[in-house]
């Protein structure tokens, strides 16, 4: 059994979430370099959409289900996030990391916004071949709603459970979850304090259709309750991704069950 790491790097790190389809190439290059530095075993990499998806999903109302308007938005949304995925895979290749895309639009179905089925065989075969599968949030067909947006955060939880990950991290553009009254990082979220923390969580400061920090922590709490803890850390801070991957101390917020 391999020691698998599931890591999501947020769209807020890789793109400018306030300007449609605007990448941050220097951040993409640094993230790829740090993945090369820190990589030691199996890794499933997931990235958020940032401005390559959230703007399009909002414009076409993709969270409202399938209708005449949203059907026209599936391709532009998928195309945008796929372009970001290409940039990340190319940056990884430049750093000597073998990586291949897995696009949820073609590999998953949803039921009322939650993953109903996903073809994980291809991911397992990539891992067996020492290839890093690179997935992303996407527009995905839904058995109930017709279409919905699948967040990278939900993918993290699903894949960590299915593939029995040993370590799960979410890198974003803040130092962890802030106690909004004090602006201190909350070091640990557990079933014991989730109710008081819930009120401190809100959406994203950029354009976002999947719930920002609130959506993230609700997903990760579900994972923690299934016995898999995770860590939210600042992936914009140089060195944190490499540290997270190679087992060094990477400060942030831990989410764990009792
Ligand atoms: N209590 C909180 N502590 C920290 N950040 C918070 C909190 N509440 C809301 N946020 C917001 O959540 C944002 C992070 O969520 P967001 O979904 O934008 O990140 P991401 O995962 O990097 O992006 P993407 O969804 O595009 O992948 C922060 O930049 C901040 O604006
Ligand atoms: C908006 C799209 C296409 C996916 C959203 O995924 P996230 O950025 O991980 O929340």
List SSEs in N-to-C order: EHHEHHEHEEHEEEHEEEEHHEHE
What global shape is seen?
Answer: globular
CATH fold title: Carbamate kinase
Mean pLDDT: 96
Low-confidence parts, pLDDT < 50 over ≥5 residues?
Answer: none
Major sheet description: 8 strands, mixed
CATH class: Alpha Beta
CA distance, first residue to last residue? 26 Å
The structure class reads: alpha/beta
Total number of domains: 1
CATH superfamily: Acetylglutamate kinase-like
**Small molecules in complex:** adenosine-5'-triphosphate, Isopentenyl phosphate
| Percent of sequence in beta strands | 15-25%
Number of helices: 10
Tell me the strand order in the biggest sheet.
Answer: 3-6-2-1-9-13-14-12
| Helix residue percentage | 25-40%
CATH architecture type = 3-Layer(aba) Sandwich
Q: How many beta strands in the DSSP annotation?
A: 14
- The radius of gyration computed from the alpha-carbon positions, rounded to a whole number of angstroms, is 17 Å
Which key phrases capture this entry?
about 260 residues; alpha/beta; Carbamate kinase; 8-stranded mixed β-sheet; two-stranded antiparallel sheet; 10 helices; about 35% helix; globular; binds adenosine-5'-triphosphate; binds Isopentenyl phosphate; nucleotide-binding; Isopentenyl phosphate kinase
